[in-house]
Fold these 4 entries.
Entry 1:
Amino acid sequence: MIMKRNVNKDELPAEVAELLANTPKTTQKTLDRIAAANRKLENDPEFLAEVERAKFVNDLLEGMEQRGVTVSELAKRIGKSRQYVHRVLNEDNRVSFTLKTMITLCHAVGLRYGSYVADKNETKAQFSIQYKGTSPVHLPSYTPKLVRDNRISVATLFNRNLEKDTGNIIKANFSNDVRMPA
Amino acid sequence: MKIDLVDIPDLQLSPTCKWRIRALSVNGKMPAIEALAEWESIRLADYKRIVKVMKIVSEKLRVTDQRHVKKTEKTHLYGDVYEMRSHTGKARLMFFYDNRNESVVVCTNPYVKGKGNQDAAFKLCSQLKEIYEANT
C-alpha cells in the first residue's frame, strides 16, 4: 500500500516547484492554438479513422485477453498467418481494415461488432445518482439527443444501471438539460 | 495555492465517453497544456498520437493496450498513475483517474522519451496527484 504524506496546502515538493518554475503561465493564446489544432483534427477523416482503428484494436485485445485467445489461435481461426494478426494488432497500415475484416476478427474472438453514428453536434451529458447512506455514483455518459428523440429514456438508463432500486435514490443529477420522465 | 482543472480545448469526445479529459492547473500554470502546445508546433505526429490516446482513454474504464497507456510499475511508491504514449513517437503525458466528484482523467505533466527520466515523471505525477487531492 502506498504511503501518503500529509500535504501542506501551500508547500510544494522540490520537483513540483521546479516543474512550475520552468512552466510559463498558460495564456489564452496557447489555449486557442490547441483548440484550433483539435478542431482541425476533428475534420480530418484520416485521423478519425486512425482513432476508430485504435479503439477497435483495443477492444479486440481486451476480448482476446478475457477469453484467453492467443495470436496463434486467432490466426488459425480466421485462416491467416500470425504475422497478419500481429499487423492488425499493431495497427499496421498495410492491413486493410474493412468492415468485413473487423467483423471476421470479432466473431473469431467471440465478440460482436457494433458501430455508432451520431449527430456531429451532439454533446456529452453526465449522469450521477446518490443512494441513501452512500456517496454519489457517476454513471456512464449518455446522449441527451437520444433521450430527447425518445430513442432511449432516462428510465431505461436507470433500469439498465440500477435495476429496480429507484426507491432508495435520494438524489439524481444531470449536467445537461435532460428532464426526468414523469 | 490555486488548483484548477481545465478542459483540453476543443477536444471532442464521444457522447458515450466515460471520462472527461482535463489538465491540471497550479497557480495558473498548466504543464500538460504547455507540452501539448509545444508538441503541436514541433512534434505534430506525436501530438496527433496523444490526442488519439486521449480519445481512447475517455471511452474505456481502463485501457489495456500498453502501446497507448502504461501504468507505473512502482505503484507501491507512486500509486495509480499512468502515461499516455505516442507509441512509436517520443511524447508521453502523465495522468491519473479521479472518480470522487465527476469521472475525470487529470493530465499533469509531460515526459519526452530520451529527454529526462520516466520514473521522475511518474513521481511528479504522483506528487501533483497528492496536491490536487489535498486541495480539492
Note: Strands of chain B lie at 3-7, 20-26, 69-71, 82-85, 91-98, 104-112.
Entry 2:
Amino acid sequence: MATIDLSLTGPFPRSEALVAATRDLDRGRRKAEEVTDLYRAATSEVLALERKIGASSVTGGLLANQDLFRPFVETLQGVSIGPLTRWFETNSFYRQPIVEAVPQRRPGAWAKTLWLDLLHTAKLPPKVILPGPYTASGLVDNRTDMDRLDFAKVWSRLLADEIRELAGLGVKVVQFQEPLLVNSPPSMDEESWVLEAYAPLAPALTGLTSLVWTFYGDGAPVLPLLGKLPVHIVGIDLADTDPADLREFARGKGLGLGCLDSRTSLPEDPREIARLVRELEGRLSPASIHLGAGAPLDLVPVGPAQKKLHVLPEAVAILEHAKNPPSKHGASA
Amino acid sequence: MTETQLFPTQEIGSLMKPRWLLQGLKGEPLNQAARADLAAWWQRTNFVPEHDPHLKKLLKGESAEVGTAAVRDLGALFLLRFLEASGLDIVYDGEARRVEMYEYPIRQMGGFDFLGHVRSFENKYYLKAASTGEVELKAPYHLDEFDFVRVHAVRPVKIPVTGAYTLADWSWNEHFLKKQAGWRGRKARRAAQRELIVELARKALRPTLKALIDHGADNIQIDEPAAGTHPDEAELVVESFNEAVEGLDAKFSMHICFSNYRTLYPAFLEMKKCSQFLWEFANRDTDHKDGYEVLELFAEFNDRREIGLGVTDIHRDIIETPELIRDRILRAARILGDPRRVYVNPDCGLRTRSLDVAWAKLTAMTQGAAMARAQVGGGAA
C-alpha cells in the first residue's frame, strides 16, 4: 500500500487584506515596510492552514512572489525583467525574464526572500518551489549565444547551488514547477535533452525530498519521461489529464495527483478524489501518493481556495478509513 | 482629421481616473493635489467653460456641494475632452463611469455571485464572480453613459462593450458545471462553458447591444481580452460574437490583446459581422522580434477586415516617438497592402498609466499617424 500525504503545490492566494494593502502600496498609500509586515503575518496564517490540513511540508504560500520567476530571477545577475506575458491559458500574466548573459547567482540573495525563519516555526519540513529547467528554458527570452539545452543546464546548475545553500538552512523539500513539460511537451527526440538538462540537479537533491510538478496540460503522454527524472515524486494535473489515460508508472517513484482545480471555484468532492486515488493506486502501483492542487490555487480567491484545500484531508480520511476500518467493537474505549 | 481619412486614430479602452474624480465621487473635500490636478488639466483641455459653477466649486475643493452625479458627469466629460484634445479621431469617455470591464457588466445581471479578488499580475487584481444560476439581465447597460457621450462628443464615437466570451472566461462556472456528472475534467469544463457563453451572449449582450443601437450607437467595439487564452476555443469566441450580434446592424469590431492571434484562424473568418480587429503590436517589433508577420494572416486567409493597430505600449511609461509610430503604421499598411484598412490605437486601455503619460503617448500617436498620412500622400480612405 502506498503512503498518502498532501501539501500546497504552488502559491496560495493573497487574502483580501493583503490585496488591499498591495494595491495601496502601488498607489503610494502604504509604506513597503508596513506591507512586508502584513506579508509575514499572512504567511504565518498560511503556515497555520498548512498545519491544520496535515500537510507533509510547508511553503508559507509564497504570497510575495509576483510570478513563477520572481523574486528568484531578480536575485540573478545577467537576467532582467521583461514585458508582461500571458501565463498559459489564464487571465493572468508574468513578466518574461530576459537573459542577457550567462546567469550568475548571488549567494544568499534568494534565501533572504524566503522567510525561512517563519517556515521553521511551523515545525514541519520547509518546501521551496522553483521554476524547473524545461519550463524556464522555454519561457525566458534567451538573448545569449546559449541554445536551449545549454541554458537549461546552466539553469539546473544555478538551482543546484541554490538548493545546496538552502539545504544548509534547513530546507527539506524541493519542488520544480514544470507546466511546459505538459503544455508544450518535448518530442520523443527531445526527451534525452530533458534528462540531460536535469542531470546537474541530481547530486544536489541527495538527502532531500524532490518533486517535479506539472500542470496546464495532459500528463499522460509524458508520464514515462517524468518517471525518468531524478526526483522522488512526479505530479500531474488531473484537471487536464484523463485518469483513464494513465497506464504505466515508473517503479519506485511517488505519484503526485493535482486533484484540486484552480479553474473552478467549486470545491472538489472528496469521495470522487478518494475514488480516483484508489483507482490509480491499483493500476499504477506508485511508491507513494501526494495530493495537492494541479495548477496553483492563487488563481482562486482565498475563501474558495481554503475550502478546496480542506477537501484534501477529507479525501485522505476516506482513504484511510477504507484501509483501516474501525473494528465493530472498537473506537468507544 | 476624420475617420474618412487614412489611419484614423481611435480610443480603445479605459483611462486612469483623475484623483479629483475619485475624491469627488466619495464626496470628500478635494485635497490640494487633486485641486491642482484639476486646474492643470482644465488648462490643457478646457473641458468645461471657465464659469461652470461645478468647476468653480471643485477648484475650491467643495465636491460635496457639487454632488456625486455631477462629479461623475464632469469626469466623463473630462476624459472625453482629454481624448479629443489629444487628437484622436474616434473617441469615448475613457470608461470614466465603469469600475472596470468585467465587474460592471456582471453586476447588471442576476445569476452571478462575487467571490473575491484574483490576481491578474503583480499587485493588480479583479473581483471575480461565479455563475450560480441562469443569466438574467436586469436591464441593458451602458445606455446612460453612451447617451451622455453622444450628446457631448465633438468627434465620432465608438463604445466598448465587454464580450460574452470574456465575461464567461473571467467568471467561474458553477451553475453549468454542477450539471456535469463525474470527474470534472477539461471536457466537462468545456461543455459547461459553452452553455454559459451562449446564455450570456443571447440573454445579456444581444439585448444590450440592441438597446445601444436604438440609442444611436453605430460603432461598437466588443472587448474580448480572453479570446486568445484558450487556443482551442476560437470557435466558442466566434459563436459568442455571432450570437450577440445576430439581427443587429452597426459597425462591430473586436479588441483582443496579448495573444497568439494565429490560433484564432481560420475560425475567426466566420465572424462575418466583425469589420475590424484591434490587436496589440507595440511590443512585437522590439528587440529583434518580428511579430508583425502575424498580419500576413489577413492575406493568407483572404480576410479583408480592417486592423486596429496597437502602436503604444500600455505597460511602460516610455513614450513612443512619432517616428516610431509612423513606421509601425506604414509597416502594417505595407503588409496588408492597403492603407485604408489600418486604424491606429494604443495596445489596450491606458488606465495603468498616469494621465500625463497617457497624454504624451496619445499625442505622440496622433502625430505619428499624421506623419504616416503625409508619407503616403494623406489621401482620403
Note: The CA atoms of residues 15 and 351 of chain B lie 4 Å apart.
Entry 3:
Amino acid sequence: MTELELWCSSSCTEVDVDTALERPRAGHDGPPLCRARALSAAGWVWLNLKVGAFSFGTGSVAPIYRRALVVEARALSAEQFQDTLTLAQLLPGPNLVSLTMALGARLFGHATGVAGVVALCVPGAIWVLLTAWLVPMDSPVARELVAGFAVGAAVLLLDLSVQLEQGLRASHVVGKQASRRKRGCRQGVVLVVALLSVLGVPLLGIVAIGLLGAGLAELAP
Amino acid sequence: MAFQIFWLCFRTSLISFAGVYGAMPEYARLFAVERSWITPEQLVQDFAVAQAMPGPNMVLAVMVGYRAAGLGGAAAAFAGTYTPPLLLMSGAVAVLDRYRSVPWVRRVEVAVRPVVVGLMLGAAVTVLRGQVAASGALTTAIVVGAVAVVYKRFSFNPLLVLLGAGALFLAIGEAIAHRSGGSAGTPGVVGGPHPPPLSRHRPE
C-alpha cells in the first residue's frame, strides 16, 4: 500500500529533493555529480519487464522510474518527471500503466511506449492466470485463505484511504492549507462517492456526480 | 462474449479514477449482478489474488475475464483494460509540453482527490460486505480487528499481513468447523453456497 508515497510526491515534498539533485545540471557550469548513463528503448522495455515481474503498486514503481530516468539516464529533468506523474494520476485509467505509457512515449516514441506497457503488464497477467489455473479456488482451504487475504486487503485499503484523507487538507497553492469548510465539503464528496459505489451505482454516474461535487467543493471559501 | 468483455473492461478502465478500486465495484455490477458470469464471492477472491500479484493491480480484469470465458476472455480483458491508458496518454503526451506547469493542473489534481478517496473507501466496504455475506460477520470482524492492530501497531510488510490474515481466517474457519462437528466445508462456516462447477473455467 504505497500509493500514499505517490500521493505525497505529487504534492510537494519530494520535488524539492529532486530539484536539489538536478541543480548541478541546471546550472550548466561545472560537471554533473555523476555521468549520465544513456537508456535505450530496449533498456526501457527490459526495465518494465523487471518492474512488472517483481514490483507492487504505483507508489513503489514511481521511485524506480525516477531513479532510472532522472538520476541515472538524465533523460528527464525532475520537474518533467513530476509533471508526467501528475498527468498520469490526473487522467482516468490505471495510474501505473498511464505513467509507463507517458514516460515511454515521451522518451522513445509511441511504439516503445506500447512495448513498455505490454512488458509491464504481461508478467502479472501470467501470474494471475497460473494462479487461477493451478490453485483449486473452490476447495475449502483455498477459499478461506483467499477470504482472509481479501479481508486483509480491505483493511489495508481502509487504512490507506484514511491516510489519503489527510491530502484533503491541501490547498491548490503548494504549502498552504485549505479552509476547514472546504475540507468538510471534500469529506462530504468522499462519503457520497463511497456510498454510491457501495450501492452499486454505475461507475460513470459515480464519477460524474463525484467530479461535479468535487468542483462545487472547490468553490467553498 | 470476448468482444463484450473487451468493451466492458475498456469502458471501465476509461473512467476508473482510483484504478482498480474504482473498477472493482463496477466489475461486481457488470459481471456478477447484471450478467452473472462470475459470482460475487469469486470477484472478491480475484480481487484478493490480484492485490497480491506484482505489476499493475488492474490485472484483476484479466482474472475476471478468465473466469468468465477462459483464455479468450482473459486476453479480451487484458486488451480492453490496457488500451484506454495507451490512447489517453499518447494523446496527452503530444500536448503535455505545451501545457505543463500550468497552475490549474495542480488545482484539478487537488480537486479530484475526494473522488479517489471515496472510490477507495467504497471498494473496501464492498469487499468487506461481500465477505460478511460469504463467511459470517464474526470471522470477518475478528480478522479485521487482528489485521488493523497488527498493521497499525507493528507496521509489518503488507504482503506478510495479507498472508497472516489468510492463515488466521483459515484457522478460525477450521476451529468453528471442529466445534460444530462439521467438516471445514460446512456451508455457513466456509461460505455461502459453493459456486456452480462450471464457473471455474479450465482451458479445454
Note: Chain A has ten helices and no strands.
Entry 4:
Amino acid sequence: MRVGVYFCRCGVGDEGQISGKIDVHVIRDRIEALPTVDYVETVDFACGEAGQDRIREHVEHRRPDRVVIAACSPRQHEETFRQVLTCAGVNPYLLHLVNIREQIAWVTEDPRQAVDKAVNHIRAGVARVAHHYPLEATKLEACPDVMVIGAGPAGLKAAMTLAKAGRQVILVEKSPILGGLPVRFEEIFPTMECAPCLLEPIIGDVLHGDVLGNIDIHLTSTVTGMRGFLGNFDVTITTAPRHISVTHCVGCGLCIEACPIAVPHMLNLERTERKAVDFELFGGLPSVPVVDESACTRFTAGDDCLLCHDICPVEGAILFDDVETIHRRTVGAIIVAIGSMLYDLSRVENLGYGAHPDILSSWDVERLLAANGPHGGQLVTSQGKIPQRIAIIHCAGSLDPDHVPYCSGICCHDAAKYVHLIQEKNSGIHITSFVRTIVMSGKEIFNFYLNKSKNVNHRWRWYSDPRHIEVRVEDDFRKGEVGPLSVVCHCADSGNIESISVDLVILLAPIVPSDGLRDLANILDIGIDATGFLAEYNARSDATCSSVRGIFIAGACQSPMDIQMAMTQGTAAAGHVLSTVVDGSSLCINPATASVDQERCCGCMTCLPLCPYQAIESSQENAKAYVNSVLCVGCGTCVATCPNGAITGHHCTDNAIYAEIEAALQK
Amino acid sequence: MITDFDPIIIGFLCNWCSYAGADKAGAAGIAYPPNIRTVRVMCTGRVDPQFVLRAFADGADGVLILGCHLGSCHYKEQNYRAIGRHRMLLRTLTQFGISEKRCRFGFVSAAEAVEFVAIVEEVVQEIRALGPADFKIGRDEVTGAVIND
C-alpha cells in the first residue's frame, strides 16, 4: 500500500491560511515516517486551477495506491478533488480529504497544538484510506416517459411543460373533464380573472394542440397499483366506464335532451337537476357527457331504454357495454398533483353547516357565483331571493386544535373576492366579516384587500376563540320552513356579545388533503406528514420532491395553495423530472450506498422499517434484505443497525472507521 | 483533580449539520480546545455503538456524537435512531465501568458555530474533571474485538 499525501498550504510559503498556522516541515517529517506513506507533497492552492493540474500530473507520475489531501473541508472541495483523481485515471473513491483548515488551522490558538492535531488527523486519514476501494457509479437505463396524476392547474402545467420538451406524458384524471377545481369556479383572486379563460387555452393545447401526440389522457381514471422505482415505474391505471366515446362524441348534447331521468345536481348544491347522461359541468372540456351508472335505468333497473342511443347522430359514440378497464404503463418518473378538498364543515357543530341551505362553504359560493352555476352567477338564497345581509365567517374550523390546526393561507383572499363580487352585483347588500386574523401577504393581494373591503356596506367584527361564534338556525326552520339565520358572536373588539340576523352565511373552510390522497400515497409508497398532506423530500429546498426518488409532487396535495403557486409547482416538478430522467442518457447511480451480504443476512428485517426512502425490500426469492441502490441515499443507518453485520456502507465501512479511530488515538 | 490531564475526545459529526457547524466555527475563527478528533459520518444514524466502544477500547477519554436538531435531519428521522442507540449504549458503557458523562449526544445545526464551540469546551472541561480513562475495556490481541477485561 502506497499512500500519496498532498498538503495544501492554502496560500504561499509559510504565510498560507493553513501553512501560516501548521508547520509544513513538521507535517512532512512526521507523516512521511508512516509506513504506508509514499510521499508528502505540498501545494500552494490545491483547489485552484494550477493546484489541481499539479496534483493531477503528480498523481499520474507517481501512481499512488491511495490519495490523502490535507486541505479545507470536504464539504467545500471533496467533489473537486474526486474529479482531479478521475482525470488522473485514479478511481475517485480512493481519496480521503482531511480537513486541516476549518477544523484545525482556523480554530487552534497554539501552533504546536495545531500541528499535533493536524498530524493526528492526517494519520487517521492515511489509516482510513487504506480501507477505501474503487467504486463505480452504475448506469441504469431509464424510461423517459412520465406519468402525471391529476389534471388540475398543477398537473396540466406539468404535463404541458414535459410534452413541450418532447416527453411522452400519461395524464391520469379521476373526473371526466380536465382543469381541476378552477374550471368549476369562475372569477379568481386577485384580478377577477376568469378561471376557465385562464385554463381552457392550456386544456385546448392538451386536447388538440401541437403536443397532442405527446399526451396520453386517461379520464375517469385512477392509479391503482405501482411497482418499481426511479427510471422504471410500472403503474396500473383503472378507468371507470364513461359509456360515451371521447373520440366519437361531438358534444351536441342531444342525448341529454332525450334522457328521461333527472337527479339532483350535486355540484350545483342540488339546486338544479342533471340527467342520467349529462356533462360533468357545462362548458367542461372535453365536451363529452358521461353516463351516471347510479342514475341511468339501464344500470339501476336493468331496463332497455335506448333514447340517448337512438338520438345520437354519431355511430359508436354511446357505449352501453363500456366496462372498467385496466391499463399498465411503464414510466421513468411520476408527478402527483391530485389537489385538495375542503374540510367537512358539518363537523364544526357551532357553525351549523348542513342544518340550513343558506349556510354555505366557500366552494358552494364559488359555484353560485359561476355563470354556469345553479342561478347563472346570481348569488341568491335557497328561496331564490337576493340576500340583504350576509355574514362571512373566517377561519371556520381553521386555527382550531379540535379541527384543522393550521391556516390554509388563501381563505382571506377568497373572502376579499366575495366581498368585491357580491357588492359589484348588488351594492346594497350588507356584509359583516367575522375575523380572527387576516392573512393576505404578497404584492398583489394586499392592495386588493385595502381597496375592496373599505366599502360602506361592509364591516368587520373580530372574534378570538373558535368557540366564541355560533350560527343559529331559528325555530321555524325546524318546523319545516326556511327561517332566518343569526350569527351570535362574542366580539373581541367590543367585548360584547352581538347577534346579527342574516339571510346567508359564508363559511371560509380550511383546505385539507383529498380523500384519495392517503390511498394514493400508500400505492406509491410515498410519505405523508402530520397534516395529512404529502411529505416533501425537503420542505424548503425540494418542496416538489416526495420522499421517494423519481416521484414528484405539485399543487395543493403538498400544502394548501393558490392557483399561481400550484402552476409554478407543476412547472417546477416537470423541471425536476427533466433533470432527473434525462432523455437519451442513462441514470447515474451514486455508488456510496449500502448493500447486503446475502450470505450473512438472516432475514430478520430489523433494517426494513428504518429506511425512510423505501430502499430496503425483503427479497421474494430468499426472504432476505435487499437494498435498492437507486433509492438508497447512503445515510448508513441500516448499516449500523444490522445485528449480523451483513450490511456494508460503501465508502464508509466499519473497518475504515475503526482504522480512522485507532490511528486518531495513537499517542 | 488532575489539572494537567489533556483528554482525547473522538467526535462523530454528521456531514450535513454538525460538521458544517464545526466548519462555520472555523470560518468565524472561533478558537476551541484541540482535544477533539473528528470522524465525519454522513449521518449520526451511521454511528454503530461499536464505533464508540472501539474508541474507548483504543484509549479515548470521551466520545461526542453530534447530529442535526430533531426535525431537521438531512435523512428525515435518522437522528432519532441515533438517539435511541445512544441511550442503550449508555447502559452498556456503565457496565464497562465507563461514566455516562464520557459519551455525550448533542445537536448542532449548520449555523451554530458558537454552540458547537460551547459544547466542545464543556465536554473537554467535564472529561478533564473526570480524569484519565481507567476502563475495564480493551481489545482482544488476536481478534481485535472489544472485550471487557
Note: The longest strand of chain A covers residues 221-229.
